[in-house]
Amino acid sequence: MWSDPYYLKRDGGEDVAVLLVDTQGMFDHETTVGLTAAIFGLSTLLSSYQIYNVDKRIQEDNLQQLALFTEYGRMAFENEEKAAATKDAPGERVEGETGGAAVPQQPFQKIEFLVRDWQNFETEDEQDLDSMEREMAEYLEHVTAERSATDLKETREQINSCFEEISCFMMTHPGFAVIKNKYEGDVSKIESLFMGLLDRYCQRVFSTETSAGGAPPRLQPKTVRGRELSAVELGTYIKSYALMFEKIGANFPKAETMLEATSKANNANAITVSTETYTELMNEIAGPHVHDYHQAEELMTRHREASKRALSAFVDMANFGSRKAIDDAREKVLLKISKDFEVFRSLNDGRNPLLGLETYLLPLLVAFLSFVLRWLADFTCSSWSQTCRASSELLSHIYMVVFFFLAIVASTKAKQISDLFDRLRAAMNLFMDRKEKRE
């Protein structure tokens, strides 16, 4: 930040202080993407007139970076708005605070692309700066025009939704004498066209008076919620925003490089495809529409085969980005396969023909033993014996009670009884298959 503010006069004679702030170099080899986003977002929050310096032309990645980083500033701005809304009850705001003007929908005021080393002016007359400015406006209109591609369209919509005004200005190369190591700042060695554009640009940026056509001044005081800030208020906002980025910055979405974003999406797709491969293969063996029961050993063998094919599909796709990210994605695949296998094993166990037979076998066994014992009692005991007759009647009552109990169950659970006989047949077939394999 420049050590002293510049004071300019507004139309009404009021003084306005201009603070010049230069952000540190970004997009270098030392500044992380997250720090770049924080710097850009913070400077956007504090500026009424932000200048985005780009080289030679406005490229698509410049727009994408602007859209991403201003989104961080917008999120911080909305967090501050929510905090203010919770502090101020409805109706407590000071009357006339917004000056009767509607609060703009865009959270930020002005962004201007300053294109350095521009080489494509069509105007041959170096003194015709007005024509050059018209070319600048046409170029900006072309760059920011709506595109049919979804990603390009969303980038432009994001920028337009964040700024009240978007403009651009182009500067030619200052001359090769300036870039030499021996250059000592001699203004006479700077190209005349560059000096003319620089003079026009300074007048353009620092204009605080309404133009002859009635257009508002380009340089406006910083406003928040539609109200111009005083120096004291700006200082409070600077502290508040800086503290917000420091304390709750971790709640913002992580700023990712194109490589990280692409790798993340690629790994996510690999996880989806590989787990779907496993599910499709296992559905054919033990899915919800399968009726056959498989032995535990056979099911485990099929599970291993399906897992192997699923991991092979994962390896074929997950071949982009860091090794750690790929390994983490592979662990997610293995975890999903393990959980799915438990589901398939439960489904297969439910088809076990021997499952639930003990519910019917125990009463039948009791009835059978009662019948045999009664027959033995009748065959061996004398019919004149009171003890023999009582024992025979008791055993008879037992198997008759069991018989009527099973009859009642059969009448109320016909479907279960039918399934029982199906299981018995399946159990016999399973027993015979095992016997044939042993032989």
UniProtKB/TrEMBL annotation:
Residues 1-210 form the GB1/RHD3-type G domain. GO terms for molecular function: GTP binding; GTPase activity. Residues 81-96 have a biased composition (Basic and acidic residues). Residues 81-101 are annotated as: Disordered. Keywords: GTP-binding, Hydrolase, Membrane, Nucleotide-binding, Transmembrane, Transmembrane helix. InterPro entries: G_GB1_RHD3_dom, Guanylate-bd_C_sf, Guanylate-bd_N, P-loop_NTPase. SUPFAM superfamilies: Interferon-induced guanylate-binding protein 1 (GBP1), C-terminal domain, P-loop containing nucleoside triphosphate hydrolases. The chain crosses the membrane at residues 354-377, 397-414. Gene3D superfamilies: AHSP, P-loop containing nucleotide triphosphate hydrolases. Belongs to the TRAFAC class dynamin-like GTPase superfamily. GB1/RHD3 GTPase family. PANTHER family: GUANYLATE BINDING PROTEIN (PTHR10751). This is GB1/RHD3-type G domain-containing protein. The lineage of its organism: Eukaryota, Sar, Stramenopiles, Ochrophyta, Bacillariophyta.
